[in-house]
Design goal:
about 325 residues; alpha/beta; Rossmann fold; six-stranded mixed β-sheet; two-stranded parallel ribbon; 8 strands; globular
């Protein structure tokens, strides 16, 4: 999908040039490593003003190192509260939970909850299944320790942006198939879920921030050495959606993940799974994070927070 400047929503035109530079930067392996090192060094341990912020190191269950997790909560709320697992974005190759502090704060202020965000291993250190295992191990830790962090134990929320959305969808799928934990609902937001990258929106995409080349490189790193790609590695390969939880998601019309997100939503609806879904016309990948004050980004945030509040009231009575 060829993307030109005149296709971009006018609210985002101010970010167009920088977004194109970002996309080209992600075409190189060294830049991903640089971003990985920089974000870890600069942002790791940063707290969110107005929230109770804690850090834990929990054991991995698959031979990996201890997992650093951030635990966030409101300063004053009557508990126990719903617990959300939040998986940060970064193409499976970079990022830390602290980068997404604004959205974490929005969730907690919209519907008081406890958010547990793991700093899962990135593909520059270890490819699949390292990140997936860290995220799933965090779910199992939350299942066993929810009460000790002020959380409810009758169900959990799983969420994430981009690659974090892909991890959210994969973790929800495994939990549904194994019965290890009850997922009340999931929010895989513009998720990175299809390693085949053969949809109309992915092929030839040259949109700002994240394009075809960046996508190819990230998937090649994440699946390095993997010969059998399962739905736990790429959730779009799922064939049975009947056990998946209610879902909230959205996507931009110009980004590579548009079609895979739409197909995922269609499969959920065919399986009679409740879904709240929007496509934001003229939006590229990560538009709401890159330009949070743009009117279209504010509309996306209102959709997300409104849907989130409705689902919390519905599934955590």
């Amino acid at each position: 999908m060829k993307v030109t400047r005149d296709m971009v929503n006018r609210d985002l035109l101010g970010s167009y040039a920088l977004g194109r530079i970002m996309a080209r930067s992600f075409h190189t392996r060294w830049f991903s490593l640089l971003v990985f090192r920089f974000s870890a060094a600069i942002l790791r341990g940063k707290n969110i003003r107005g929230l109770v912020c804690r850090e834990r190191h929990i054991p991995g269950r698959n031979g990996g190192p201890p997992i650093r997790v951030r635990v966030y909560g409101p300063t004053a709320a009557i508990g126990p509260l719903p617990v959300m697992l939040y998986f940060h974005g970064g193409g499976y190759v970079h990022g830390v939970p602290e980068q997404f502090g604004a959205i974490i704060k929005d969730f907690i202020e919209t519907a008081p909850c406890i958010i547990v965000a793991p700093d899962y291993r990135k593909a520059v250190e270890a490819p699949y299944p390292a990140a997936f295992n860290d995220c799933y191990d965090t779910l199992l830790w939350v299942r066993d320790h929810a009460a000790s962090i002020g959380g409810r134990t009758d169900g959990f929320i799983v969420s994430g942006h981009s690659a974090g959305g892909g991890l959210a969808a994969a973790v929800s799928l495994k939990a549904a198939e194994t019965g290890d934990a009850r997922i009340a609902f999931q929010m895989p937001l513009y998720p990175m879920i299809d390693d085949r990258q053969n949809s109309a929106s992915a092929v030839g995409n040259d949109a700002p921030v994240w394009d075809e080349e960046a996508n190819k490189l990230a998937w090649s790193r994440y699946l390095d050495g993997v010969t059998n790609v399962t739905p736990y590695a790429a959730a779009a390969r799922c064939t049975d959606y009947t056990k998946l939880p209610p879902t909230i998601t959205y996507v931009g019309s110009l980004e590579p993940f548009r079609d895979e997100t739409k197909t995922y939503v269609e499969n959920l609806r065919r399986a009679d799974i409740p879904v709240e879904f929007e496509v934001f016309d003229g939006a590229f990948h990560g538009f709401d994070v890159m330009a949070p004050e743009a009117p279209i980004s504010k509309r996306a945030n209102r959709f997300l927070m409104g849907s989130f509040q409705k689902f919390v009231q519905r599934y955590f009575p």
